[in-house]
Recover the amino acids of this structure.
C-alpha cells in the first residue's frame, strides 16, 4: 500500500523534468501576479530583482575591475584618461572605482545573506519541528536554550563569537546560524504545536509513517505561510548583520568588495571625501528596504486570502 | 505574587549561570589561547607554561570554572591587557556614558514612537496610517552605520551644523549627542511604533470603544480615557525589550562617533583580543538584557490583571 502511493509521483517527476524550467518561470510569474495586488510588495520585489540582476551581470556592468587601483580620491564623474571610462561614483582611498566595487559587492552580499539565512532556517526548522512534535524533555531543553541565546544582545553575541572563531565567510554563516536559529525554532515550534493535532497528521500516524516523514512532509509544507514572511524579514536583517560586521572590521577579509567593509575602510576619510562612504550605504539600505517591503507585501497578500 | 517574583528571579540567576558557562566555554576553556592573548604572540612556550601553571589553568575544569565564576560575581574581572588597569576601572565609567546616551535615546524615542503608533492605529488604513507605516519601514531598513554615514555627510560635511565626533574631549557637550541619538532613534522607533499601531488598531475594534463612540462621548475622550489604557500594555514589553537592542546599537554608533561608551569598549576589546575585557563586557551586557526582560515580565503582569498570578 505504502509502495503504491509512493511510486506514481516518482514517475511523474521523471516525465515532467524537461518542463522544470517552464514550471519555475510559471510559478514566478504567478507569484508576481499575486504580488501585484500589493503595490508595496511589488516595489520591494522590483528593488530586490534589480540587485539580483546587478549581481548576475556584474562583470558586464562594472566599468573597472573592482580591486585595481587607479586614481585615489577621484571625485564622482572624473574621467580616467588612460581607459576613457568614468568614475561615476568616484574612487576610494586606494583609487579603486566605487561603482565597480558596489556592483561586485552585490555578489558578496547576495551570496552570503541568502546562504546564511537558509542555513539558519534548516537548523531552526529541524529543531523547531522536533521541539513541537516530540514535546517532552527535547522541547524543554531546546526552548530553554533558545531563550538564553535570544536574551543576548545580538551584536554582543556576534562580537564574542567572531572574536573566538575568527572573521571569515564560513564563520559569519556559523555566527548567523547560532544567533538566528533559536528565533526560527520558536516560530516553527509554535506552528507545529498547532498543526500536530490536525486530521492529516493523525491519518499519517495511522498509516504508520515515521515521525520525520510526518514532520517534513505533512507538517512543514502547511507551516510555510508565516515562514515565508519571516524569511523575507530575516533576509533583510541578515543583510544588515553582514553589513554591520563588515563595518565593525569583523566581516569578510579584504580586498574583495563588501559594502560594510567599504564603509569601514574609508570612514576615517569621510570628513573630506564623503562619496566613498555614502554610496555603499545607499546600496545596502535599498536592498534591505527591498526585502522588508517584499515581506510586507507577502504578508498583506497572504492575509487577504 | 511572591511566588511569581521568586520564580522570575530564580530564572534570572539560572540564565546568568548558563550564560557564564557558555562564555567560559567560548573564551576561557582553551588555556593555551588565553596565554597567547595575555602574553602576546611572541611569548616563549616556557613563559606560557609558567603563566598557565601560576594562574591555575592546569586544575580540573570544574574548579577552574567555579574560581572564575567566583571572581566574576565578586566584580573582580581581571586586568585589561590593553589598558593595564583592572577591567572595572575602565568598564564602569564607560557604562555610565552609555547609560546617558541610552537614557536620552529612550527619552526621545518612546514618546515619539508611541505618539506615531497611536496616531496611525487610531484610524486604520487612513492616509496618515499609510504614511507612518511606510516611513517606519524605511527608517528600519537603513542600518545604523548607514544612517550614521548619511546623516553625518549631510549635517557635518555639507551643512556643517553639527560636530562629526562625540568623544567629549572638552567636557560634556550636548551638541555631540545629537547625531548618535538621532541615528539610534531612527532605527529603533519603527518597531515600537508598529507594535503600538497594531495594539491600538485592535483596541479600536473592541465593543467597548464602539459603545463609547455611540453613546456620544467626544472622540478625544474616547481615545485618551478608554483606548490608550489598554493599547499601551503591549508596547510596554516591547519598550523594555528595546534595551536589549540598544546594547547592540550602541556598539555601532559609539564606534562611528568615537563616543567613549560601553559598546565601543567591547568592540575595541574584541579587535585587540583583550580577553578579560570581553568577558566582563559580555557578562554585563547579558545581565542588563536579562534583568530588563525580568522587569518587563513583572511589569507586564502588574499592568495586565488578566494574566496576574499565573
Amino acid at each position: 500500500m505504502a509502495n503504491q502511493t509512493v511510486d506514481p509521483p516518482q514517475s511523474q517527476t521523471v516525465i515532467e523534468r524537461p518542463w522544470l524550467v517552464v514550471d519555475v518561470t510559471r510559478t514566478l510569474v504567478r507569484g508576481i501576479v499575486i504580488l501585484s495586488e500589493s503595490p508595496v510588495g511589488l516595489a520591494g520585489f522590483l528593488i530586490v530583482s534589480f540587485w539580483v540582476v546587478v549581481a548576475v551581470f556584474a562583470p558586464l556592468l562594472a566599468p573597472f575591475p573592482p580591486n585595481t587601483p587607479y586614481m585615489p580620491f577621484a571625485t564622482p564623474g572624473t574621467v580616467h584618461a588612460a581607459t576613457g571610462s568614468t568614475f561615476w561614483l568616484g574612487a576610494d582611498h586606494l583609487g579603486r572605482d566605487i561603482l565597480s566595487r558596489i556592483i561586485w559587492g552585490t555578489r558578496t552580499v547576495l551570496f552570503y545573506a541568502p546562504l546564511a539565512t537558509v542555513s539558519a532556517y534548516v537548523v531552526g526548522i529541524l529543531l523547531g519541528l522536533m521541539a513541537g512534535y516530540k514535546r517532552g524533555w527535547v522541547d524543554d531543553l531546546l526552548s530553554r536554550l533558545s531563550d538564553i541565546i535570544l536574551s543576548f544582545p545580538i551584536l554582543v553575541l556576534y562580537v564574542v563569537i567572531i572574536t573566538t572563531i575568527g572573521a571569515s565567510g564560513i564563520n559569519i554563516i556559523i555566527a548567523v546560524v547560532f544567533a538566528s536559529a533559536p528565533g526560527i525554532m520558536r516560530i516553527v515550534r509554535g506552528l507545529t504545536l498547532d498543526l500536530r493535532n490536525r486530521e492529516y497528521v493523525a491519518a499519517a500516524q495511522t498509516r504508520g509513517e515515521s515521525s520525520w516523514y510526518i514532520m517534513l512532509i505533512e507538517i512543514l509544507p502547511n507551516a510555510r505561510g508565516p515562514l515565508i514572511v519571516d524569511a523575507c524579514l530575516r533576509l533583510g536583517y541578515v543583510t544588515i548583520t553582514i553589513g554591520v560586521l563588515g563595518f565593525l572590521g569583523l566581516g569578510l577579509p579584504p580586498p574583495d568588495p563588501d559594502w560594510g567593509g567599504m564603509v569601514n575602510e574609508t570612514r576615517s576619510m569621510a570628513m573630506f571625501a564623503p562619496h566613498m562612504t555614502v554610496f555603499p550605504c545607499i546600496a545596502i539600505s535599498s536592498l534591505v528596504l527591498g526585502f522588508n517591503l517584499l515581506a510586507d507585501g507577502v504578508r498583506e497578500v497572504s492575509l487577504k486570502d | 505574587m511572591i511566588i511569581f517574583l521568586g520564580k522570575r528571579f530564580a530564572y534570572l540567576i539560572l540564565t546568568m549561570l548558563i550564560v557564564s558557562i557558555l562564555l567560559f566555554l567560548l573564551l576561557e576553556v582553551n588555556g593555551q589561547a588565553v596565554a597567547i592573548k595575555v602574553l602576546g604572540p611572541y611569548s616563549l612556550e616556557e613563559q606560557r607554561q609558567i603563566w598557565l601553571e601560576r594562574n591555575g589553568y592546569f586544575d580540573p575544569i570544574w574548579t577552574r570554572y567555579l574560581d572564575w565564576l567566583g571572581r566574576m560575581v565578586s566584580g573582580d574581572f581581571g586586568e585589561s591587557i590593553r589598558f593595564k588597569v583592572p577591567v572595572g576601572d575602565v568598564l564602569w565609567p564607560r557604562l555610565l556614558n552609555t547609560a546617558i546616551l541610552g537614557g536620552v535615546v529612550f527619552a526621545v524615542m518612546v514618546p515619539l514612537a508611541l505618539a506615531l503608533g497611536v496616531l496611525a492605529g487610531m484610524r486604520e488604513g487612513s492616509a496618515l496610517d499609510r504614511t507612518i507605516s511606510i516611513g517606519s519601514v524605511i527608517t528600519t531598513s537603513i542600518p545604523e552605520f548607514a544612517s550614521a554615514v548619511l546623516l553625518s555627510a549631510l549635517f557635518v560635511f555639507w551643512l556643517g551644523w553639527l560636530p562629526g565626533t562625540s568623544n567629549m574631549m572638552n567636557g560634556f557637550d550636548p551638541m555631540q549627542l545629537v547625531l548618535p541619538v538621532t541615528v539610534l532613534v531612527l532605527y529603533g522607533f519603527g518597531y515600537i511604533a508598529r507594535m503600538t499601531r497594531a495594539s491600538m488598531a485592535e483596541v479600536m475594534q473592541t465593543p467597548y470603544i464602539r459603545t463609547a463612540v455611540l453613546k456620544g462621548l467626544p472622540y478625544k475622550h474616547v481615545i485618551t480615557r478608554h483606548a490608550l489604557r489598554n493599547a499601551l500594555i503591549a508596547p510596554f514589553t516591547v519598550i523594555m525589550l528595546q534595551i536589549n537592542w540598544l546594547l547592540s546599537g550602541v556598539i555601532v554608533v559609539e564606534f562611528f562617533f568615537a563616543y567613549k561608551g560601553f559598546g565601543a569598549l567591547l568592540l575595541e576589546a574584541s579587535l585587540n583580543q583583550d580577553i578579560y575585557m570581553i568577558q566582563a563586557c559580555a557578562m554585563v551586557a547579558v545581565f542588563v538584557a536579562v534583568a530588563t526582560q525580568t522587569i518587563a515580565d513583572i511589569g507586564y503582569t502588574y499592568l495586565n490583571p488578566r494574566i496576574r498570578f499565573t
In short: The first strand of chain A starts at residue 78 and ends at 79. The radius of gyration of chain A is 23 Å. Residues 1-16 of chain A have pLDDT under 50 and may be disordered.
